[in-house]
Hints:
Elements: E1 37-38, E2 41-54, H1 60-72, H2 74-80, E3 83-85, E4 100-107, E5 113-131, E6 139-145, H3 170-173, H4 179-197, E7 205-207, H5 208-211, E8 215-224, H6 235-238, E9 247-254, H7 266-281, E10 286-291, E11 300-301, E12 304-305, H8 311-320, H9 332-346, E13 350-361, E14 364-376, H10 383-399, E15 402-406, E16 431-436, H11 445-451, E17 459-464, H12 473-485, H13 492-497, E18 514-517, E19 531-535
Parallel strand pairs: 4-7, 9-14, 9-15, 15-16, 16-17
Antiparallel strand pairs: 1-18, 2-5, 2-8, 3-5, 4-5, 6-8, 10-13, 11-12, 13-14, 13-19, 17-18
Amino acid sequence: MRRTRCTPVLTLLLPALLASACSSGPDATSGDTGDLTSVGGVVRQLDWDAFVYVAPDADDASIARTIARQIKSALGALRERGVGIADREAQSNLDPAGWQRDRLTIIDATGAPAGSLTRVRYHYRDTALVDRRRDPGAALAFTLMFGDYVARSADYQPACVDEATEADSLWYHFSPAQAACATRIATETRSLNDALARLADPTGQVSAVDAARRFLPVRAKLTVQADAPTRFPEYDRLWGFGSDRSKVVMYAFIGVDHDLRDSHDLGAIEYQRLLRTLRARFPRLAVTETRPQAWLLDFWIDGRKLDGVTFDDVSRWMIDGAGYPAAVGSDPAKIEALRQQVIDRFAERWITLSMPVTVTLGAETRRMTVELRTYWGLEDGDPTSRQHAQWRYLEAFWHGDVFAYAGHSHFGHGPLEPTAYRRENFPERYQVMLVNSCLSYNYYDLDFIRMHPNGSRDLEVVMNALPAYWSGMGESTALYLSGLIDGTNKSWAQLLDGMKVKDPWGRAGYEPMRGVNGELDNVYDPVRLAVTVRVE
């Protein structure tokens, strides 16, 4: 099995999505500013000082873009160190009033003037999630990319990336701690120091070597923040107490890793893992609708229908590569034909599972239905797929109590980009959201919380501060969904802890430093009044 991480996928942009979709920063929330609940990470305030070079006549807008691009490269560098920052594009953390501009003359190798530039010094402050196991303490040294690294992408590859990448994804794959890159950084630093020593006026001049630099080592300060108090999902509101709702509606979307028609695509495997994990926890979950309609368990080999096929059989075929029927045996062609039929039955289709439950809170008992609406299929790659995915998400935002997505992040190029939606797409009721993808901490949570009609009072978002692996994504998503509705009244920390699965190497307990934002103003207390759930 490939050990694919949930890496960004670059696609053709629709005109409506050309705007950058970034988190709006730690001061853009409705009730949460820095503290959040995480079991894998600790919250820190992160500060560093840095600078950029711009044209002498650069205006504030172009300077801000240059600084934001530099800060974006921190995501790759900090990813190596087990750190995730909240504001991916520095949209709310840069104030021109705090910039220091210095006009410098460029001096070439002969000592002659060779033009001029403006150095802009800035201070950056953000909220960071830091891996508990790798917490560096009060200070953290790392390296940023300098200048227009997108245009100079080839200069950084292969030495400074963890895998070959397109220019627009260089920031994500930037890996300055790799031995080859560390050597390049050290070599450049020596050249910069030698050139600096030859300047006649170091305060008003900059060497041509420095003007063309590729790296900027920085040292960040990490300030301890108060631990988040124990908070619980608002289970009473999730189950509709105080309303006339008779259903809890959950949406679960699994994307495609690389090819929908590849029967070994990790999206196909993780969708089956999602269903298998949920069925194991709730055997009463039954398929109640397929849209478009399909007989999910009808399979044919050599023109003859296979009898007695179960959903567990399908899971074994797709996940374990085992348990094939006798009519298939070990024939590779027949195995692949069978797996292709699974894609035909399950892909690009709404599959809804339901089960009746009785829910009690104090003296009130409600007979309800848990309805899980699932979809595995394309959500990007072409304008039509992206548009259809947006329509599905709009349906889920409006009708769902629980929204869960597992797949590629797309980082500003995909259908879940927050700027594609607005306040009117959400109801004024309590909802929870999971974005189980790479670095969703600095992309999805604060934007959606700010967008929701009542902010964090009605929305919590679970996200990942580090890269996630495809392997186990379906299982971790299913564990999250089942934990919300199993009547055990888990705290948010317990829910996150319960999502840990094996990594692609088989090591137990993996989680990409998940956190939940929007939970600090929750008031539900199971000690005072617990919700109980009984499956009928």
